[in-house]
Amino acid sequence: MSQEESTLEQAQAVRKAHEAELLRRANVVGVGVGLRTQGGRRQPQVALVIMVRQKIPRAMLAEADVLPVEIDGVPVDVVEVGDITAG
Fold first, then answer.
1. What range does the domain containing 26 cover?
2. What is the per-residue burial (b if ≥16 Cβ within 10 Å, else e) of 47-83?
3. Quick one: CA dihedral 64, 81, 40, 34, positive or negative?
């Protein structure tokens, strides 16, 4: 197994283990695995992608709703997606 496959499997396991808890946080609408985006550019780093309705300054969030920068060694990428509805 390549390093890339191992990293992807680790990220998938972390998503599976933490998805329900993350979805209970205010503003979180989805959790997935993908490539990290920084400064509008996709990076070659696998991350846990946490989708939120709107990015809110940390100071305005309850402590329980603040998202970590990494979970179990997997970096977290917070992406603003708005409301998600079935089409």
1. 3-80
2. bbbbbbeeeeeeeeeeeeeebeeebeebbbbbeeeee
3. positive
**Token output for 64:** 């329980």
Residue type, 41: R
Q: Does residue 75 form part of some domain?
A: yes
| Digit-coded pLDDT (tens) for 1-38 | 777 778 899 999 999 999 999 999 989 999 999 999 98
| 19 and 56 Cβ atoms separated by less than 8 Å | no
Mean pLDDT of 66-84: 93
Residue 43 covered by a domain: yes
